Structure of NAD(P)-binding protein:
Amino acid sequence: MVSSKYDPRKDSIDLKGKVVIVTGGNRGIGYATIQHLARAGAKVYMAARSEEKAEEAIESLKKSGIEPGEVAYLKLDLQDPKQVKQAAEEFASKETRLDVLGVYSNFDSTRNRLTPGFPVNNAAVVSAPFELVEGISSIILVNHIGPFVFTQALLPILTSTAKEPNSDVRIINVTSKAHQLLPSNVKFESIEDLKVTYKGKLMPGFMRYCHSKLLNLLFTKSLQKRLDEANSPVPITVIAIHPGGVDTFSHTWPLPWLWKPLVGLAISTPELGAYTSTFAAASKKVGEERSKYKAAYLESHPPGHFAKPSKDAQSDKLAEDLWKLTEEYSKSFEIEF
């Protein structure tokens, strides 16, 4: 369970007039994060592939007390880099600011869906078969390439917002503590390094998941460095978070009324599991100590506490190699930034 001194209702900044995008927010941690941010006054865009599921989630939010108009749908398919860029352009045609970008999606290929946050004990993630999509591993496409393209395409509006007086712009990438289980022989020297199978390893599907979560951390590191070292430094705080163990699955089991309270003895509900992502997105503490939180890796016990990622996740060389390789791959879609 989450042990917390952070209370989203008391310890968040006033988000009235602020605009937020949350990807993969139609259920689980992303959905709960939207609840917290909308209650704090933000206008939130729920970026998701399925409009039907997103509209159902938005209707559920309204029933929970979120006023109509506070949450809107934005079509986003992280498996399609060109559509990802189009989604960013569509958003920019509707809004003049973006204060928080939160990326919450994980790929579950056996169920053909995006799953928000880290679905603990999700056998589909552990056993997902290897699949090539657009010339690379499908899980890398969804968990890294899609978020990279989306973030880069939104940087102009994020930057213009960040340069307004009294701004507090943040980019939140959801990773996982599981990245620490990855063997330390990772490299990003060619496109082949985005096709790793981990064949012969115990639970290769899970290893591919861990690999994608390492990329989230390296992307966070590189992006913060580039923002800080620009000719005109951009005051945006980029943070990676591990939400902890969250029950996003017991409702799908037989006899959920029996399992849900038992699972709840060990891990958090999505509402509590979203505390760390909400802390990163809206905590007053982050706003008061921005330099301290730049490129930080935060874990969930208690929400928002600093943790040390793996040695590979701290590597400047791996971060730079990954950035260059990702940029090169993006050009194959005629996407440049």
